[in-house]
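Q: Please design a sequence for this.
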């Protein structure tokens, strides 16, 4: 391979690698952000994974762990760990299905319902604030394009 070809390959690699590194950095920072416990307005500290799982249960009373696993593309073990934490915090309850004793249905407790509603209020304000910050440097079209790209990225996975 001559120097010109190698230089072209190096240049293309640098451009692609710089973009890939942005994705990696975003993914790592967002992962850290998801792990931070927050007060969504009720005084209870809970991380984003637990919160969104609880809200899925609140919005889908009687959902099963298997259905949650598919919904969030998580392993059954990961969902089980999250459910155990939510149950220990008395935010969900598990009930046997009357028609099939092997099937366990999930329900938000009254405290879980209250926290889920507070979470929706918190997220609505947080997303609006984030969008305002983004619009200081990006157009609405650029933001829409970002979300379009993210949705395709998810499909690739």
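A: Design:
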């Amino acid at each position: 391979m001559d120097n010109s070809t190698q230089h072209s390959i190096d240049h293309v690699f640098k451009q692609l690698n710089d973009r890939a590194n942005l994705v990696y950095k975003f993914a790592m920072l967002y992962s850290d952000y998801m792990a931070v416990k927050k007060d969504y307005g009720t005084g209870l500290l809970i991380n984003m994974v637990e919160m969104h799982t609880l809200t899925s249960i609140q919005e889908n009373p009687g959902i099963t762990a298997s259905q949650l696993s598919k919904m969030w593309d998580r392993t059954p073990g990961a969902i089980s760990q999250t459910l155990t934490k939510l149950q220990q915090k008395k935010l969900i309850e598990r009930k046997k299905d009357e028609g099939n004793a092997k099937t366990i249905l999930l329900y938000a407790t009254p405290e879980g319902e209250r926290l889920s509603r507070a979470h929706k209020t918190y997220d609505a304000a947080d997303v609006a604030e984030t969008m305002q910050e983004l619009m200081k440097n990006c157009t609405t079209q650029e933001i829409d394009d970002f979300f379009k790209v993210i949705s395709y990225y998810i499909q690739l996975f």
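Q: Thanks. Anything notable?
A: The beta strands are 38-39, 45-46, 92-97, 100-108. The longest strand covers residues 100-108.
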